[in-house]
Model the fold of this input.
Amino acid sequence: MPPRFRFQIQPKHPPHHAMAGDWAGLDKGTGYEFWGLRKYLAGDSFRHIDWKARARSGELYVREFLKDSAYNLVLICDLSPSMTCGGKLALVRDLVESLAWTALHANNPCGLLLFADRVLDYLPPSAAPQQLQRLLTALDRAGVADCRQTRLQPALAYLFKRLPACLGVILSDFNAEIGDLRGQLEAAAGGRYPAHELVALHILAEVEFRLPEMQDVQVHIRDVETGVTQALDLTRRQQYNALVGRWRKHLVRQLARADIDSALLTVTDPAIQEKVNTFFARRLAARV
Amino acid sequence: MATFELQYPAALLLPLLLPILLRVRRQRREKIPFPAVGPHLAGLRPGFWRANYEAILFSMAFVSLCLALANPGYSRRTVEEFIESKWIFLALDLSGSMKRLVSPESPETLGDLALDGLESFIDLRRADDYIGLVAFSSYARLLSPLTFDKQLLKNKLELVRSRNQSRIYRELGAGGGTNASEAVWLALSAFFSMLPEDSRLTVEQIAGLRQFLLSEPGTLLDIPRRLHQAGLGRGMAVILFTDGRIEPTLRTHIRSGRMPNLVNLITLMKAIGVHFYIIAVGGEIDDAVEQAMTPAYGEKPIGRIFVTSRSLDRDQIEAVYQEIDVLEANRNLSRVTFQPRWTRPWFSLLGLVLLVAHLTMRCLPAYRRL
Done:
């Protein structure tokens, strides 16, 4: 059964791997192996214009390359209780399946790290044909952790100890303080910064993004993780949306300080595939 | 009722349950699972009133209903100035000796003279005074119960004038005895009958008093508590007019033993505070009676014995009655009344209003809760 999404995973930085570029991927991208020429399209970089072809034909052509391969994709999944709200866990499973399928389809090893307040499970990256099934089975078997908080740092420390370099995709709602990830990444790089390339996909229920239209009432909410309760005045919908947006921006900035790019995905978003692909493409464009 | 009183004080312990009720209420409140309740949502907490109005109104309603159950009461003190209303019974001897003429040249009998004196006394009294009439010889008859209708009293006195020769006059005049003690007991019984319904004596209590009166002087007197509580005796007086010998018991009835002892009657009147005045024409008073009328050391005098000569005239009688009128002068009194005020209806109403306010506020959009 094909995965729900078709992604185009493009690392921002060239892989720091001994075998990087030893074999070519199946897609065009930002590698070093020449693939062919195509006509210039608006938005193409001038650096890729083939001036000799221009001289021969009088038209603008740009060079295309084979995409670099041999990156280790590690899917870092948050399985804290907060992920049970609003169908986030189902979306995580679809994303894991789609991202792993994409990586494995391009002969790239793919691994899985499940965490909550600690590391729950870890499958090292592998390009074996049955790896996709292993990943999904591990994800289904793990279930939701019984914990009172979410901590990303122990999971990253665990990963950095086991892999010298990887492309990590963090799938989480990032509802906890993130802490100092930059220092952790620099320490892991050992002078070859960035050794680990991390991206964050914020998996959000709709209510974490904006308040849906409902009656002007007061509700009592309970944090599914910490158990903290609070009365919420839903008559102040605009203020809620502003505060939630500001909080999310704060988290994104915190991640950005550690060179972790973020994309916000809501469960009810119909264009998740486009958003993720655009996200990877923009990262790449920013490097170029 | 005291100045402040609680009908059910134990109900005041119920508000101690309020913290438990509020806690249970808070725990049972439905809470929506939410991914993250972080500091970023702190600014969305409702204000103090909107967050706690339910608990506040519930607490107030609960306390109000508890107070309604406890039913606090207070007394409203009112002071009323008034002139005392005296209750006076006039006991008139109408035995055969009272039919003697005052003087050979006058057609008036001693009884008529006494009646004139009584009329003048009735005229002297205030309109608010209750006056009753008892006539007696060997036995006593109630001519008029206590009334402030002076004309009625005068009409009753006319009945026993010698010139009218009424049936009751003839009946009483036929008796030769001076049964003063029976007349006084009849007057006292009339006082007892004027007591309010809840203070009225039972048949057994009256029989007990009667038993005391029939016994020998010196017997232990047991006054029913109701008489003390009703304040019987204050402002009451019995005036006895007789020309016979005033002695404890009528000699002719000693053997039968059915006559109240006057000494015991005086003791009873002393005990309950009824004043007693004796107008004795001829001055024949038994020592025991005189002894009983004399106040002990530190005691207030119960009354007085007016001794007149047998040849008395109208002026003498009126002078005696005027003296009694002075002695029984109406006093200016202050009546302090405490009207009980129970607050249960007010607290119940307050609790109801708070509950209605609670329900009304819950319907307002800004105060609605999920």
About this structure: The first strand of chain A starts at residue 28 and ends at 39. The first helix of chain A runs from residue 51 to 57. Chain A has two domains: 28-66, 73-209+243-287. Chain A touches chain B at residues 82, 85-86, 88, 173, 175-176, 205, 207-208, 215-226, 228-233, 235-236, 239-240, 243-244, 246-247, 250 (CB under 8 Å).
